[in-house]
Amino acid sequence: MKAMGSHFDYSETEWSAIEAAVREVRVGPLTSQERRRFRSAGDLYRVHSRSKVHLDRLSNTRSKAWILVEKLSEELRAALEEAAKSVTREEYLERFPSLLVKLRDDAQLFSRGHSEMTKDRPQEIFYRTVLSIWVDEIGGKLKKSRSSDTAEPTGPLLRFFVAVTYPVMGSASPKPETIHGIIKREKALRKAEKAD
After folding, report:
1. Spatial CB neighbours of 1, under 8 Å, sequence gap ≥ 6
2. Confidence of residue 59 (pLDDT cuts 50, 70, 90)
3. pLDDT tens-place string over residues 136-171
4. Domain co-membership, 89 together with 51
5. What distance in Å separates the CA atoms of residue 50 and residue 6, rounded to the nearest whole number?
6. What 3-state DSSP class applies to 107?
7. Domain carrying residue 68
């Protein structure tokens, strides 16, 4: 991790580790937009996990409007992805779904009140953002893997998750078995959200 003013950024070595994990599921480097999302998620986690004042401000911004923005941005993202399938190679349409995922994630954050921001809440938001980038932007799957030799957790998602979270959280970052639990919870949350 390196300081960029007062904002979080990954070192070149850390970016390389993230890109190595991404290359296991898709071709090409991270886009500048994906890099911004990673930096933003790291910033948000660090601020929220260390600053009660910021959490109090977040509490004051809770509103029905942000809840509506969250819902509508997800609906619009899904509609645009569907529309893009019916158009022949309209590249300008490809950038909208990932922008809407970012808007949805930010709206979700702003719609939460202080009472919901427990000590673990910043971690949960950070983990969900990291998994959202993996699935919705990179195209990875929420898949848990184990080594056939040792039965230890492994796989592209685990390597990606560690590469993204460790530079931000350090020794507080989750261990491999915990990451499997985080993936399981995310699958359940996505299934429940889809049912709504």
Report:
1. 8, 9, 10, 11, 14, 42, 167, 168
2. low
3. 999 999 999 888 888 899 999 999 999 999 999 999
4. no
5. 14
6. helix
7. 63-111
pLDDT digit string (tens) for 7-41?
Answer: 889 999 999 999 999 999 999 899 999 999 999 99
The overall average pLDDT reported for the chain is: 81
- Count of structural domains within the chain: 2
Q: Do 85 and 126 share a domain, yes or no?
A: no
Is the pLDDT assigned to residue 192 strictly greater than 60? yes
Q: Which two tokens stand for residue 31?
A: 């886009």
Reported for 53-56, long-range contacts at CB under 8 A and 24+ positions apart, including other chains, are 55/114, 55/117, 56/114
Rounded Cα distance between 147 and 177, Å, is 13
Q: What is the pLDDT of residue 83?
A: 75
Let me know whether 33 and 124 are in one domain: yes
Tell me, yes or no, whether 175 and 82 share the same domain. no
pTM for the model stands at 0.67
Residue 184: phi and psi, rounded to 5, are -60, -45
Same domain, 127 and 50: yes
Q: What are phi and psi of 29, to 5 degrees?
A: -75, 170
Number of helices and strands in the chain (H, E):
8, 4
Task: Fill in the amino acid letter for 193.
Answer: E
Contact present, 129 and 136 (Cβ < 8 Å) = no
Same domain, residue pair 91 and 125 = no
Angle of helix 156-169 relative to helix 121-132, nearest 10 degrees, comes to 140
